[in-house]
Design a protein that fits this description.
The chain is an all-alpha fold and 63 residues long. The protein has three helices and no strands. The protein has one domain. 73% of the residues lie in helices and 0% in strands. Helix 1 packs across helix 2.
């Protein structure tokens, strides 16, 4: 995750914190946003599988 994105995400998360929020909640949100960033980067780089490819691979994995 880039430094600019990290700062943006931390500010975004901080704005939604409530008195009941925990550090674990912050970690979960940050992890989710990082995963989304990674997925978008993979899609941009063409590192994706079609539904048919996923079905074929999953059949092989579940043998």
């Amino acid at each position: 995750m880039k430094k600019v994105a990290l700062k943006k995400y931390l500010i975004q998360i901080a704005e939604k914190l409530t008195p009941e929020s925990t550090l674990e909640d912050v970690y979960e949100q940050l992890s989710l946003l990082a995963d989304i960033d990674e997925s978008e980067e993979q899609e941009k780089n063409g590192e994706i599988l079609s539904q048919k490819e996923v079905q074929t691979l999953s059949r092989e994995w579940l043998r």
